[in-house]
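Hey all, sorry for the wall of text incoming. These are the two entities for the joint prediction.
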Amino acid sequence: VPDLLAHALLAYAAARVASLRWPWLSRPYVTAAMAGAFVPDVMKVRLLVRSWRVEALLGVPFDWAGLQTGGAAVLFVLVGAMIVAPRVRRRATLALGLGAATHLLADAMLWFPSGRGHPLLWPLSRWNPPTPGLWLSTQPYWTVLSAGLAVVAYWTWRRRGGTGAATRDWWG
Amino acid sequence: VLRSLPARGVFVVALLVGLLALGVWFGSLAPAPAAGGYPTGADLGADYDRYVGDRAVVAGSVVETDPLVLAVTEGGGRSVRYRLVGVEASHARGDDLWAFVTVQPDRTLRVKRVVHLTPAGQWYARGISLLAGLWILARVVRDWRVDRDAAGLVPRRRAVGAPDDGRDDGGGGGGA
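and here's what came out:
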């Protein structure tokens, strides 16, 4: 897992670039994409409450890793879809999904000792994709690269007159 | 569909139950090494002998350095000690290691690839993640509000052409 800042910046960059094509992706939806990128990291509660403690509580096997999967991301995004007002649901859901997707894809680039990442498609498939192993989450390279991408996305958006495009449809 | 607050509430509860179910389901899965889902420390702790000869992924802390012994937390929260062989770098007690290993008899793990998760690196990742979480939260609060009539979050309305319109402070990375 790269650190959350890297995920937030990557989601920002992806959403900003997407907003050039889809002007409705105004600032609130860029924020929604960033929130979507946070979602798979809910898993981090494992640092506080280990899987075996949940097992002891439930009396059945439990593994937080099941929540760092594509299937769990879909459920998390749907929770977000229920929290927003129905009239902005479609756009908010797309933005949240975009953010969650950037998170899962970035995680699939990380270094794992086995060379295999999280099961991205579970529960459809148990396949753990091979990872290029770029960096560890405890190294800042990802964050620096993501910040660079975010800056490029921001400036591209500004140069293309993004301000007007974003305000015209502020309501979503 | 799912426009009324009660209906949405019920669906959210169903989704949360679904997430819990995914955790339980995942926890009950046997390792799938052919798909890249290698056995973990919890699997080895439950039935070590079954995995002798297989590859596994373990994480733990160094408790002895000569020979190198790793304490790995197993399913019940207890830690099990394994001897690590094939590690070239020297490690100090308390080092957190994350390793891809071949399981050998007598609680011995032959290391194929290993990484030392330094305390500084782990604190860096936690600290910066916390900041990022606060940044996202601040943006959500600033950009969204509760609409009581619609019973949900909606983007905040800003006057078109207002100075802050379309400005976006998220590009610099210095925001967190």
